[in-house]
Design goal:
The chain is mainly α. The chain contains five helices and no strands.
Length: 116
């Protein structure tokens, strides 16, 4: 689990990049700070020619998107609530019900990647 994949194994880079970006956005969901992070990453990438700046841009965009969903703007969760009253009061109870139905109706399959 903590080693380098073998030569003929699947490259996990894309999976790790996507899941890290999504999880960062979920944990650091803030519209204002996400925009600032994207701008700092853009400056680092364009002005200082740092490849890490591109990562900052993607993480900032993810944070900004989830910040809109969470209604957070620089830590204040009341500013955006006026704009999303209908969205915030939406009933999300169907999501756990769908997850339970899907888990019950699809039998567990072995993972496609063999773990040693």
């Amino acid at each position: 689990m903590y080693g380098v994949p073998r030569y003929n194994d699947v490259d996990p880079t894309l999976l790790v990049a996507i899941s890290y970006t999504l999880l960062f956005g979920i944990m650091f969901g803030d519209l204002g700070q996400g925009i600032i992070l994207s701008l700092v990453g853009l400056v680092a990438e364009k002005k200082f020619n740092l490849k890490l700046g591109g990562v900052g841009v993607r993480l900032g965009i993810s944070s900004a998107i989830f910040g809109v969903f969470f209604g957070s703007f620089f830590g204040n969760e009341e500013i955006l609530s006026e704009y999303f009253k209908g969205f915030i009061s939406y009933n999300f109870t169907f999501i756990p019900a769908f997850a339970i139905w899907y888990a019950a109706s699809h039998p567990a399959r072995p993972p496609p990647i063999t773990v040693i």
